[in-house]
Amino acid sequence: MPNQHRRFLWVLAGSFMATLLPIAIANFVLLSNSYGNNELVLKASQWQQATHGTTFAGGVAAPDGHRLFKTLRLHDRLMEINTVVLGSSTVMGITQSAFPERFKIYNIATNSNPLFNVIGEAEYIQKYIPSVKWLIIPMDWSLGFIYLDARPAAHDLSLPEAMRQIKSNEARAPVTERMRDAVSYPRIVSLLKMLKSAFRSNDKIKAVKNGFLIIGDEYVCPDGALGKDFDPMYRGICAGFRYDGSATFANLNRVGEKAQNAIRGSLDTNWQYAKSLRISNGVPNTVLLERLVNIDKRAKQNGGGIILLRPPMLSGLEAEFMRQRLFKDALLATKNILDTWVRQHQLKFIDAGQAEQFGCTADEFVDAHHAVNTCYRKIFDLSLPSLMPKG
Q: What mean pLDDT is predicted for residues 137-157?
């Protein structure tokens, strides 16, 4: 190897050792005590139950962390609720404020949770928690959840199973996974922000120490709720879950003026939305539809029902898909099949895909398929009165 190439490699290695390596080590130290730590998930749940505040826990960020946290919270809230919101992060923006007084909700939506899992969760709730009368279930086409060729499996959302997981700490992430997360962009940005804030502090040493504490101090969120974080990441910005289970999305910027760029990017044929339509030809999995009909029948027998929702997409995006020759036929097939199915089985259905029809703006999205609470409030304010009988 020529000397100049060898020198370049040494300079490159030295640069890594001087910059990324210390950051990776610092983040790994933090993650060793927080990421996937089920005990912290339990502490966060207990704190939220006592204070009704907003909390973020490191274990929540790990695989199945959302599910464990939401399961604990669901059981704590059972005496107060009659409605459960299920699904993936696309419906995490749904809050209690979106519903009239008769609906007492808890949002158990978890990251990347496909429809076949949601159906299993709904069936568990109907079998073991009859006090829950109403279920809100999303029908995501953009992420391909309604097309997936999979059968729903049984789920155990019991409190004993959740406590078993906490005692065994079985979701504790392996070393390789923690190392990978330690050098992820969000973790690096979070650490740099903490160090920047500490540098500006009058007591820099104390600020750094506080930044490395796993459990932070209580503080007040912009909405007036109490906040506390059980992880150094996103410390002090109310980036976690509210008392009703909804997500604040406080750690994410709003799309705003970048809406047109986001729409153009979403139309890429290699992007997930296009792939979902192309692979399925817009035809939903009939097995999933059949199971949903049965869930609705049981809910009606229990004095409630299910409300199906096509989650909102960035204002203008779905309409643009309908104008594109590559996507129009498949998306139109999805809409026609679901509309016919809804009428045939007399299901309650809200098509919120074109969010602009409900007055939602780009400032109410963090990306093309995640709407915040204010958009959902507009959707339910306009939709529920026509769906629900008075009384």
A: 94
